[in-house]
Amino acid sequence: MDIGADSIGQHICLLGLGYVGLPTAAMLAVNGFRVTGVDLRPEVVQAVSAGEVPIEEVGLNVLVHAAVNSGNLCAQTTTCPADVFIIAVPTPIDEQHRANLSYVESAARSIVPHLRRGNLVVLESTVPPGTTDGLLTDTLKESGLRPGDDLLVAHCPERILPGSILTELVKNDRVVGGIDQRSAERAAAIYRRIVEGQVFVTTAVVAELTKLVENASRDVGIAFANEVARISREFGADGREVIGLANRHPRVNILSPGPGVGGHCIPVDPWFLVDVAPRLARLVRTAREVNDAQPLWVAERTIAELKGIADPKVSVWGVAYKPNVDDARETPALHVLEALKANGVQVSVVDFHVKRFRYQLDDIEASVTDADCVLLLTDHREFSFFEPAAIGSRMRTRILFDTRSCLSPERWESAGFRVMTL
Ligand code: SAJ
Which of 39, 190, 218, 412 has CA atoms 20 to 30 A from the CA of 225? Predict the structure, then answer.
């Protein structure tokens, strides 16, 4: 069977029900596709089958509930025959900062026994250039079918921002790259059913590079902001004030400094470019190094501020990699904590969103009691609700290091705090 434009409403098997796969599966289902979501984790399959959402994301529970109730979305742990296969599995990096494509490979291999002539396979996972028309097509060939002739194969990198996933899934433009024009057009026809933005058709390698360049561009931008913060600090100036004023220039738009770059995308994807073009991707590599060094700089400044205090204790506010999400993957907070602990600083962590973390999560009262410093690493909205005087009354020393500049320095200073910013 051929996946023509008139038959795209058929069955999609989507592999990987994570931050990208689950919203995509639900969105396809509520738009009329019959979707089987596949995940190796039984607890995820169980939750989705019950119309529940294992991650914190605005509106996602309503969407998944609607998709499951419509009868168009079901979940299971094994791959099944379908008209279209979409792969949305993780692509982490290894110790040498090289792409680990084993999840993509095993997802593709699980599809092989079910492939039929005319099937379309779409890769959404972020990958190094040459993976779609390389590792993916090579694996699919194990079915005896020929990509291009018997199978359609395309790459459509995801672009959604955790915290605004549903809006971005619908509103953002998409780039669809095929191993040939027919593959790209057929994949684009599917995305046009769920996306309000434009869907651009190109080659697989251009789509792969586009995705990597997007995230590398953000990483370079953040690295510049972090560097400005450090240079400004050398002169006793606040980097955010410098950036805010520089941004009043009509052609300057600098991002915000922070305690480092976290998440499963921005600290990972630029390395794919460094890996494939080590002599060319110099700026990309340097940006990664600058951003990776930022947590240590934050820890060192905290330790310097605690000098002279016996057995210092720090109350760490927020370990999620960004505000108002429950995601602590690749969080810079982990490196800050490890550096503090390695220097004999007692730490107590508070986070109202993250449910599981490497270190114990405490309640706010226990965390600030007898603490010498509040170190704010993630600007979760709840932190601005606290009364500085009430927090200070439980602390031993009143220091606030607000690495996100999200709290009012005047309020905290008037409660007797010494306030530090980046
Ligand atoms: N950060 C700063 N300063 C800033 C902006 C961000 O320090 O000015 C930090 C954040 O605190 C966080 C990290 O960078 O630790 C990354 O956060 P983010 O909000 O920039 O990006 P992600 O990782 O949540 O999502 C990115 C997005 N990519 C781009 O904006 C180019 C998203 O569109 C992608 O879909 C996603 O990566 C992905 O999955 O690739």
Answer: 412
Q: Which residues pair with 35 in a beta bridge?
A: 12, 73
- Among 383, 336, 376, 380, which Cα is nearest to 359's? 336
The H-assigned helical ranges of 41-164 are 42-49, 60-69, 102-111, 137-140
* H or E element in which residue 187 lies: helix 181-194
What whole-number distance in Å separates Cα of residue 76 and Cα of residue 56? 21
The answer to whether residue 5 scores a pLDDT higher than 70 is: no
Contacts of residue 312, Cβ cutoff 8 Å, sequence gap at least 6: 306, 344, 345, 346, 372, 373
Annotated catalytic residues are 211, 265
Q: Do domains 11-202 and 306-421 have the same CATH topology?
A: yes
- pTM of the complete model beyond 0.85: yes
For residue 55, what pLDDT is reported?
86
Give the amino acid at 111: I
pLDDT tens-digit map of 10-54: 899 999 999 999 999 999 999 999 999 999 999 999 999 998 898
Cβ of 319 below 6 Å from ligand 1 = no
What are the tokens at 246? 């520089």
CATH topology of domain 306-421: Rossmann fold (3.40.50)
Query: Which residues are CB-neighbours of 400 under 8 A, at least 6 positions away?
Result: 373, 374, 376, 388, 407, 412, 417, 418, 419, 420
| DSSP string of 298-338, one letter each residue | HHHHHHHHTTT-SS-EEEEE--SSSTT----TT-HHHHHHH
Ramachandran assignment for 208, one of left (phi > 0), alpha (psi -120 to 50 degrees), beta (any other): alpha
Round the average pLDDT of the chain to a whole number and report it.
96
For the chain, the domains span 11-202, 306-421
Distance CA 67, CA 77 (A): 18
Which residue CA neighbors atom 1 of ligand 1 most closely?
261
Going from the Cα of 162 to the center of ligand 1, the distance in angstroms, rounded, reads 8
CATH hierarchy code of domain 11-202? 3.40.50.720
φ, ψ for residue 32 (rounded to 5)? 100, -5
Tokens of 400: 């606030």
- Evaluate: CB of 258 within 6 angstroms of ligand 1: yes
The angle, 0 to 180 degrees and rounded to 10, between the axes of the packed helices 21-30 and 181-194 is: 80
